[in-house]
Amino acid sequence: MPETKFPAATTNAGDAQSTDALRPVGWGRALRIFAWLSFVTETIIIGTGGAVRLTGSGLGCSEWPLCTPESLVPTPEQGIHGVIEFGNRLMTGVVGLIAIAVVLLVLHLISGRRALTTALWFAGGGIVAAGVAYAVVRFFDKDLAFPVAAAVLLLVTIVAAVRSVRASSDRRDLTVPAWITLVGVIAQAFVGGITVLTGLNPFIVGFHYVSSLLLVCVTAAFLVRLYAAPGPRERAVPKWFAILTHVTGLALAVTIVFGVLTTGSGPHSGDAEVFRHGFDATILAHVHSWPGYILAALVLVLAVAAWKLRAEPRRWLLVLVIAIGVQVAVGVWQAREGLPPLLVGIHMVLASLSAAAYTVVVLHLRRPVTAAE
Fold first, then answer.
1. What is the b/e burial string over 266-288, where b = at least 16 CB atoms within 10 angstroms of the residue's CB?
2. Could you tell me which of 303, 340, 207 has the C-alpha nearest to residue 261?
3. Cα–Cα–Cα angle for 144, 146, 148, nearest 5°?
4. What CATH number matches the domain at 232-373, 3.10.20, 1.10.10, 1.20.120, 1.25.40?
5. Largest CB tally within 10 Å, which of 162, 253, 259, 362?
6. Out of 73-77, 105-109, 289-293, which region has the weakest mean confidence (pLDDT)?
7. Is the CB of residue 45 less than 8 Å from the CB of residue 212?
8. What is the pLDDT of residues 36-48, one digit of tens each?
């Protein structure tokens, strides 16, 4: 892998370039480590979230953000379901801390200490604002206090992200996905709370999963651009190949959506008392398979064409062929076995990895102009 190049940052004295920011040997290595950790943990949390649902632990912690009205952590009476649900909540905290580390490292390497300090001021202000909102709302309605505080923190983070991206034109291909991941993690924690408070509404649960899958794709995109040469890019494949690739993406999206609807009508609701949305799971399973088979055929055609053309994304298309092939096999297997929880969980994680591999393929449709020259 080539070394990641970072532009020099401007100092407080003006537009003079600071060589202090040109030190990817230490800080750049740390960024690469945390970027990989971000991708891995975003994938793992899909597995832990799936475990919550597939073991019937969705209401293992009956409250949010507390596990019970009196306790932050699960009590012995809640048993293994409380432990599983609380473990997933802890995993959210791990993912959030890693996302924060990625943002701070990117700001330090690209824009220097001033941008880093500004971000830290926003973080402190967001925490204070959330605390004030919590205290005020709690005076009127105790149940709404934490959701409102979380919403305030999310809003401050979005403002910080917009300001950060607008303040620097350097390497926005890194700053934008880094901020999207952080904002997404905070939003996911908020949506997770709504999921519990609404009694595991299947549509909100499905949205929660799709959002997590998209964050896996964003962290994969960040890794691709982290190792790629910066600068203008041009199309590296024929136009028809690029169009067919995007059509394949549409087939992938449709397959995932119908997969979420199928799971939302199946037996794994997250809790025995949860009402499903009423769709016929048998019919949806067949509907889900149709775009899945179309997707597999399209990916295979792309892979063969890419190797014949010796196109840029051919190796990643091979990875995508394997991922989709395994996904189809697991899907057929789980349907024939009556949807055992382990196979359903594997199917969920593989869907996120397939989407991530497709994201990498799309990013390899273009190459740096310098590479062509």
1. bebbbbeebeeeeeebeebbebb
2. 207
3. 65
4. 1.20.120
5. 259
6. 73-77
7. yes
8. 999 999 999 999 9
Domain assignments of the chain as residue spans, ordered by start: 22-112+168-227, 232-373
Q: How many other CB atoms are found less than 10 A from the CB of residue 20?
A: 12
SS3 233: strand
Q: How far apart are CA 345 and CA 42, in angstroms?
A: 15
Hey, is 240 helix, strand or coil? Answer: helix
> Structure pTM?
0.86
The pLDDT tens digits for 111-158 are 778 888 888 888 888 889 888 988 888 888 777 778 888 888 889 889
Residue 9 parent element (H or E): strand 9-10
d(Cα 51, Cα 344) in Å, to the nearest integer?
10
* Pick from 236, 318, 226, 219: nearest CA to 27: 226
Contacts of 348 (CB under 8 A, 6+ apart): 46, 47, 50, 209, 263
